[in-house]
């Protein structure tokens, strides 16, 4: 009897303490509730790595404070890989940042479902500043939930020097031309195409781009809602990739090569003239610059859009790209939105583009784009009939990861084009 | 460590099994004595003892509840939901996550990999470790140097080992270079990316990494065997191999069984080496994915926190069942200290 009561008491104490501990962890300071007119302090989470990008945000916050002395913005810079986990915890607790980097796609949908972000009501000026095309990818059911600052058109980055050495005079516009260029690059003993398949998504981007060419815009958008990949174009895209693999375009041992770390990574191979091309979004020049022997930008880096695929239903000019943006959490005061509006004005966008070496969304600020690869990308983007979000973002991580892994399987010779569709469909059940 | 508990249950079992003879009664006497009614003084003393036990074990119990039982219970709870980790889970799906796990082709694959690693770790590391320990137990020149060299891989962190090996084993890495320049070019291979080879590469690295630990355990086991036994056997004219087979191996039994237990649990939970070398996405393709990798890839990386928690529960149950079975059938004698006690 006594023994029983003792142990019950011990358990009760233990559970009580455990609950108390967790309750404590949940209770944070709730400093940002509802609209306020007086002095406000906002928290702002972003992921710029140290350097000009981080400096830009510091400067922007300072300028905004001098224009609106009642608004103080505290920046918290979080390392990219840690960002999503920390944000998720913060959003679930009551200490969410007011303004934060938004990845978009399935994650934004999940935040919306949990009621953690607010819809933004843009003025006509805001809309003109950002541009409707860029806003489209940050909207759900016609409402805008994030404001993008740059566009990230994807295409093939290549080394002009290696192309010249291989005797390639103009960039390929069709798959046949790309395949013959692969042969030419092999002849000068460099890897024609580098891909960091260890991270899965870089390999999967080949499939995405084939899908953009094969599937109509409508099919791709429908798939985002139903998460059913029944249209034959999805298999067709896999077959296109399988047929491209026949010319053996990728570097040796690509399966365990990472995309961005060290000279052996795919970006590192491009940076060190060991590979001719790499398919990437427009963060690539910055990554490559960090991996060249002198850690300076690669002088002969250039860009061309993904080649056309004969017989596809997608528009040949359509382009794949990421966007992301900045969202406001549920309880952020209206001053937070003012800061977002400020970030997309011309001067801020110019400074942003310079700091991040990227293409700003505000068309009036695009004059500051000077690097040849960014100019090519910008031209292709402005010419594009439409832009598709990266599929793993568009369809959510769950489906996206399954698709990425299935593409890696195909490339490694362990799966077929039909398996990509099958695995993707079955992943949709899990989440 | 779990001695009091082990003795208790073991004696309980024995008295149940062999009660008519009552041969076990003297041995169990100290453990069961307080159960009989005694004087009040004695009882008050017992209450005090209980309080003391509660106070002393309280912190440990609280830690255990807060950091082991509570998370396990939470994982079981989340496992019943379809949940992306934003907001509180609301979409109750019952056992659907478990149904999906058990029917998922990829999960069956990781089970195969995990069990293959487990079996081969035992088969490769066990005999090798015993042989090495026997060798290193002899008085040979450079013995301590060899001991250190064998133990070093175990001490190095998994991340360093993983990074090092993945650099050396790349298609244009050091190993292939060495093979090429020493005229063995035909042996070159894609050690990491060839799906037919990768699992064997992994098993090689795992064996290299963890054998040091096995050797140290075996050496300690060997040193605890009294020398007199060997001397007596030698006087009786036993050969070296007879001594090893009839004396060393049986007396090393408890050590071997404990090592095997640790090795099994370690294999079932293998994560870091695979994560560093192959990463969560490619390991399935390369054929080296383990249960823990599957959990991270399908749970955290895919944003399916409900599904991921269900995988954690399945992993927990598999490890628990294996551990319980092993304790019940293999470690039973060790836990009751039968080796030195002698069996009647």
Mean pLDDT of chain B: 83
Order of helices and strands of chain B: HHHEEHHHHHHHHHHHHHH
Shape of chain A: globular
Task: Give me the CATH architecture of chain B, please.
Answer: Orthogonal Bundle
Biggest interface, chains and residues, is:
A-B, 52 and 45 residues
Percentage beta strand of chain B: under 5%
Sheet/helix structural class of chain A: alpha/beta
In terms of topology, how is this protein built?
The complex is a heterodimer of chains A (431) and B (344).
Chain A: H1 2-26, E1 40-46, H2 52-67, E2 71-77, H3 80-92, E3 99-102, H4 105-113, H5 124-130, H6 132-136, E4 139-140, E5 143-144, E6 150-153, E7 155-159, H7 160-165, H8 175-187, E8 191-193, H9 201-214, H10 217-226, H11 232-245, H12 266-271, E9 275-280, H13 284-289, E10 301-304, E11 319-322, E12 325-328, H14 334-343, H15 346-356, E13 359-360, H16 372-383, E14 387-389, H17 391-394, H18 396-411, H19 417-427
Parallel strand pairs in A: 1-2, 1-3, 8-9, 11-14
Antiparallel strand pairs in A: 3-12, 4-5, 6-11, 6-13, 7-9, 7-10
Helix pairs in contact in A: 2-15, 9-11, 9-18, 11-19, 18-19
Chain B: H1 3-17, H2 25-32, H3 40-78, E1 81-82, E2 91-92, H4 96-103, H5 105-136, H6 143-155, H7 158-169, H8 174-181, H9 198-223, H10 227-235, H11 240-268, H12 272-277, H13 279-286, H14 291-300, H15 305-329, H16 332-335, H17 338-341
Helix pairs in contact in B: 1-2, 3-15, 5-9, 5-11, 6-9, 9-11, 11-15, 13-14, 14-15
């Amino acid at each position: 009897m006594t023994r029983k009561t003792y142990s019950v008491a011990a358990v009760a104490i233990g559970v009580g303490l455990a609950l108390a501990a967790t309750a404590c962890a949940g209770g944070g300071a709730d400093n940002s509730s509802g609209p306020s007119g007086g002095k406000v302090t906002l928290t702002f989470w972003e992921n710029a790595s140290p350097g000009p990008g981080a400096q830009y945000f510091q400067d922007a916050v300072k300028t905004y404070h001098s224009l609106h002395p009642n608004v103080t913005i505290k920046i918290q810079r979080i390392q990219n890989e840690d960002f999503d986990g920390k944000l998720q915890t913060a959003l679930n607790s009551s200490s969410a940042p007011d303004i934060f980097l938004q990845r978009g796609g399935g994650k934004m949908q999940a935040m919306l479902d949990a009621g953690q972000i607010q819809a933004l009501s843009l003025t006509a000026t805001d809309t003109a500043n950002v541009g409707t095309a860029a806003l489209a990818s940050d909207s759900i059911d016609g409402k805008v939930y994030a404001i993008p600052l740059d566009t990230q058109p994807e295409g093939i980055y290549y080394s002009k020097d290696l192309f010249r050495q291989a005797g390639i005079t103009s960039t390929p516009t069709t798959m046949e031309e790309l395949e013959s260029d692969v042969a030419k690059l092999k002849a000068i003993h460099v890897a024609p195409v580098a891909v960091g398949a260890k991270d899965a998504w870089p390999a999967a981007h080949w499939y995405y781009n084939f899908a953009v060419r094969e599937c109509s815009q409508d099919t791709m958008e429908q798939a985002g809602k139903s998460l059913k990949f029944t249209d034959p174009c999805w298999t067709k895209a896999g077959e296109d990739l399988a047929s491209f693999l026949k010319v053996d375009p990728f570097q040796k041992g690509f399966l365990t090569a990472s995309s961005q770390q060290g000279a052996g990574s795919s970006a590192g191979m491009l940076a060190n003239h060991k590979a001719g091309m790499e398919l990437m979004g427009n963060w690539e020049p910055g990554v490559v610059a960090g991996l060249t022997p002198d850690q300076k930008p690669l002088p002969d880096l250039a860009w061309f859009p993904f080649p056309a695929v004969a017989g596809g239903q997608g528009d040949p000019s359509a382009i794949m790209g990421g966007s992301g943006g900045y969202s406001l959490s549920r309880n952020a005061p209206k001053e937070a939105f003012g800061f977002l509006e400020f970030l997309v004005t011309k001067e801020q966008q110019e400074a942003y583009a310079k700091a991040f070496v990227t293409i700003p969304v505000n068309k009036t600020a695009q004059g500051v784009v000077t690097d040849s690869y960014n100019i090519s990308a910008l031209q292709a983007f402005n010419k594009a009939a439409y832009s598709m979000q990266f599929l793993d973002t568009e369809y959510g991580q769950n489906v996206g990861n399954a698709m990425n892994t299935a593409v890696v399987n195909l490339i490694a010779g362990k799966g077929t084009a039909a398996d990509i569709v099958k695995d993707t469909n079955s992943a949709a059940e899990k989440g | 460590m779990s001695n009091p508990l082990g003795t208790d249950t073991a004696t309980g079992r024995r008295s149940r099994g062999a009660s008519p003879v009552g041969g076990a009664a003297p041995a169990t006497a100290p453990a069961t004595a307080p159960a009989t009614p005694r004087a009040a003084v004695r009882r008050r003393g017992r209450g005090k003892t209980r309080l003391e036990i509660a106070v002393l074990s309280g912190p440990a119990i609280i830690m255990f509840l807060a950091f082991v039982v509570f998370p396990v219970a939470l994982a079981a709870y989340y496992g019943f939901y379809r949940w992306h980790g934003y907001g509180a889970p609301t979409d109750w799906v019952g056992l659907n996550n478990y149904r999906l796990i058990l029917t998922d082709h990829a999960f069956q694959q990781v089970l195969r990999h995990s069990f293959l690693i487990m079996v081969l770790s035992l088969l490769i590391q066990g005999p090798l470790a015993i042989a090495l320990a026997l060798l290193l137990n002899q008085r040979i020149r450079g013995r301590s140097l060899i001991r250190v060299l064998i133990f070093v891989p175990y001490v190095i962190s998994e991340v360093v080992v993983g990074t090092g090996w993945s650099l050396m084993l790349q298609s244009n890495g050091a190993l292939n270079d060495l093979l090429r320049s020493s005229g063995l070019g035909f042996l070159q291979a894609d050690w990491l990316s060839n799906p037919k080879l990768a699992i064997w590469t992994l098993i090689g690295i795992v064996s290299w990494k963890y054998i040091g630990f096995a050797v140290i355990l075996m050496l300690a086991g060997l040193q605890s065997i009294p020398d007199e036994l060997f001397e007596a056997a030698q006087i009786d004219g036993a050969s070296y191999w007879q001594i090893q087979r009839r004396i060393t191996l049986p007396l090393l039994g408890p050590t071997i069984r404990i090592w095997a237990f640790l090795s099994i649990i370690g294999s079932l939970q293998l994560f870091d080496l695979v994560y560093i070398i192959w990463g969560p996405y490619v390991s399935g393709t390369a054929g080296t994915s383990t249960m823990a990798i599957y959990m991270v890839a399908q749970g955290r990386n895919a944003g399916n926190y409900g599904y991921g928690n269900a995988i954690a529960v399945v992993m927990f149950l598999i490890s628990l069942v294996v551990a319980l079975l092993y304790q019940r059938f293999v470690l039973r004698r060790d836990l009751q200290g039968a080796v030195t006690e002698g069996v009647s």
